[in-house]
């Protein structure tokens, strides 16, 4: 059972929130080493950063392209089946949206504040609840084969779980509803779209791509800041109580962290583009499903790999981002890339568990 911060977390100081640079002490040590005839430690140069930058850009393009192709295929397949089921013609999604607006009314405040809160909470607890059932019941037994940290939360401690549920509900209501109202006011200032008319599918794909890019930037740097020595113990430490997280610990955190790390980064892209409320709901759904998967503790087949963020909870000062693009750029995945967890950091396209496909090396007997 997960019992709190790991030994490594207690030993390592929090990240100082600064990007890698050459400290004066390093320069002095390099000079002294040269005077003693010792080969100085090589310092990072602009040239050495270029391959890392190109690798980061390549990773971003691959991830986003894969997502867009997969999402487009899923949407087209789903639309075809739903049209056959309902016998609808023309623009299926627009006709369903018209029905929804006729039922709820077209008050933008109600849709952006109340409906957004209800919708996002429903997505979080429906899918998070499925993961939680796995952890509480340890059923089905086969699901344990996909644990990234075997032996943890088997079953999950009920008292710790109750604390998580209470904190998450507080963040979703006491913090989330006022933030939803603030976001609505920001969208009003930005300029609201016609609620009745949905954007084209291709424009939705473009907006989702932009939101992915903006969230990666916003979340990475907000997360790095939360790991700074001056802030960590007061805010982010609560979230790191779980070194082997479960899905619903995704927003188990201090209210300040919930605002600036969980709510603002996903909203930035929506605000900058002035997106339709339906696009916002779609984007928020993808964000929620992603963070539930990242904290689930399971590397399930045909799901995006959660290995990087699970490694972050285990080792504390690695893998701060969502996609890993900025981690690669800033070198905050250096330790992760030397482990078997990095080899497993792929979408498994078979039912073979990642830990069996890429086993840990056998320990040498003494």
UniProtKB/TrEMBL annotation:
**Stretches for region Disordered:** 1-47
Q: Which residues form the Fatty acid hydroxylase domain?
A: 210-332
Ranges that cross the membrane? 53-74, 111-134, 161-181, 201-222, 267-289
What is one Gene Ontology biological process annotated in the Swiss-Prot or TrEMBL record? lipid biosynthetic process
Q: Name one Pfam family in it.
A: FA_hydroxylase
Any idea where this protein resides? Answer: Membrane
Please give the GO cellular component terms listed in this UniProt entry. membrane
Q: Name one GO molecular function term.
A: oxidoreductase activity
Q: Which InterPro entries match?
A: Fatty_acid_hydroxylase, Sterol_Desaturase_Related
Spell out the PANTHER family in the cross-references.
STEROL DESATURASE
| Name of the protein in question | Fatty acid hydroxylase domain-containing protein
